[in-house]
Amino acid sequence: MGSRIEHRALFSPDVEAVLAATSTEDAIRARLAEIGGEHAELLSFTPSGDGVSFKLRQGISAERLPQAVRVIHKGDLMVERTQTWTRDGDGYTGTATAVVSGVPGEITARTSLKREGDKTALTSLGEVVVRIPLIGSKLEGVIAEQVTKLLHREAEFTAKWLAENA
């Protein structure tokens, strides 16, 4: 059993504008430059007729890691994350997966982007699983907390991007 991740952000612009602010190549590169951490990089970007898929790398420097993580992992943490969006009616649904270097386990999430009244909702529901006896559940909680903070920062970036580029 893993630790749950839940995040929801609301934006005024329509679904297409929010998708563009979170998933165009320019927006992703700008987000990585601003909040991507150590060695951040867009590894792949594949638009399709009904959505987009991309893979990125984000890093967390060792000195910023919680002590519980530094005990089992020496050096910077590198996270490789894949996001896929596919049109679903008037919105988009997707999946997000991530692996953390040197940590046996994964992060998985279902994502959605849909209009709710006069707002567009971006929702992520997922789970962190760490397969290390005795301390795995503690690490799951720490990682889930950090992922939730990152999703919040990304939502703030998206709101700023929309204000400047919409």
In words, what does this structure look like?
There is one protein chain. With 166 residues, this protein is of the alpha+beta class. The chain is built from four helices and seven strands. A seven-stranded antiparallel β-sheet has the order 1-7-6-5-4-3-2, covered by helices on one side. β6 and β7 form a beta hairpin. α2 crosses α4. It is globular and about 45 Å long. 26% of the residues are buried.
Keywords:
166 residues; alpha+beta; seven-stranded antiparallel β-sheet; 4 helices; 7 strands; 44% strand
Largest sheet: 7 strands, antiparallel
Biggest sheet strand line-up? 1-7-6-5-4-3-2
Helix-and-strand structural type: alpha+beta
Radius of gyration: 16 Å
What are the SSEs and their pairings?
Elements: E1 3-11, H1 15-23, H2 25-35, E2 41-48, E3 51-60, H3 67-72, E4 77-88, E5 91-100, E6 105-116, E7 119-130, H4 136-165
Antiparallel strand pairs: 1-7, 2-3, 3-4, 4-5, 5-6, 6-7
Helix pairs in contact: 1-2, 1-4, 2-4
